[in-house]
């Protein structure tokens, strides 16, 4: 008989059969959601930038050993007038953006093989993004 009791039993059986499928679908969906992007920390970047000061100057304005970093985002690589860039940097097709500059700050030779920057790189992409955030902060101070 398929009275109210039989109907409930069928519903329960159906739920029991589809429950694992729903759980599996939710698990797959959760795994496909990307981790949240790193919120760049300019204060941490300022600390890390201490490793850059000897060549790029206290405020990133450049020295005879390192080009100015002011305005670097959006600038083609190797294009600060008067700075003697390596041939590799001069010929690089890169236009600096946050991600590319961060990658360069983590592994300069990987991004522009043959460049002359003596710095081996920061440990993590997040460190690079933090330094980029600090450089952008320097830019806003210069433009005021």
UniProtKB/TrEMBL annotation:
<keyword id="KW-0349">Heme</keyword>
<keyword id="KW-0479">Metal-binding</keyword>
<keyword id="KW-0408">Iron</keyword>
<dbReference type="Pfam" id="PF00034">
    <property type="entry name" value="Cytochrom_C"/>
</dbReference>
<feature type="signal peptide">
    <location>
        <begin position="1"/>
        <end position="39"/>
    </location>
</feature>
<dbReference type="GO" id="GO:0020037">
    <property type="term" value="F:heme binding"/>
</dbReference>
<dbReference type="InterPro" id="IPR002327">
    <property type="entry name" value="Cyt_c_1A/1B"/>
</dbReference>
<dbReference type="GO" id="GO:0009055">
    <property type="term" value="F:electron transfer activity"/>
</dbReference>
<dbReference type="InterPro" id="IPR009056">
    <property type="entry name" value="Cyt_c-like_dom"/>
</dbReference>
<dbReference type="GO" id="GO:0046872">
    <property type="term" value="F:metal ion binding"/>
</dbReference>
<dbReference type="InterPro" id="IPR036909">
    <property type="entry name" value="Cyt_c-like_dom_sf"/>
</dbReference>
<keyword id="KW-0813">Transport</keyword>
<keyword id="KW-0249">Electron transport</keyword>
<feature type="domain" description="Cytochrome c">
    <location>
        <begin position="40"/>
        <end position="139"/>
    </location>
</feature>
<keyword id="KW-0732">Signal</keyword>
<protein>
    <submittedName>
        <fullName>C-type cytochrome</fullName>
    </submittedName>
</protein>
